[in-house]
Amino acid sequence: MKIYFACSITGGREDEGTYQKMVGMLLSMGIDIPTAHIAETGIEEVDAWEDPYDIYFRDVTWIEESDLLIAEVTTPSHGVGYEIGYALELNKPVLCLYQKQVVVSKMILGNPHPLLRIEPYSDLNEVEETLRKYLVEIQDQLPGSK
User: Rounded CA gap, 24 and 11, in Å?
Assistant: First the structure.
C-alpha cells in the first residue's frame, strides 16, 4: 500500500514531532510513504531551494500514484488543503487527523465527500489506533484489493 502523507511545512512546524511519529507508525506497518521526508526536521529549508513547479508536479504525481492520502491538519496549510482536494477529485480516500483541542477549517469539517474521513485525537496512542482501524476498513475499497 502506498500512502501520501500530508502535513504543514510553510504553514508552521509546531507539530513536527507528531508528524515524525505518525510517519514512523505507518512505516512500521510496512506502508510505502513517498512523502516521509516531509516529517523530517529542516524540510522547510530544503524545500526553500526547490523550484515550486518541480514540487507541484512531484507531489501531484505522488498523489496520483498513491492509494490514499493521510493528512495531519492541526496546523493550517494551504498546500495540505490543496492536496486533500486534489486527492478527493481523483476519488482517493482521505483521512484527516487533528488534535481535539484545535479548531480546524470548516472547509475540511464541512466537506461531505464520501471518501473523506475526519478524526480528532487526544494522544499518539489514539492516532495509532485510528490509523490501524482505518487501514483495515479501507483495504477492501482500494483498487486491486479483491
Answer: 22
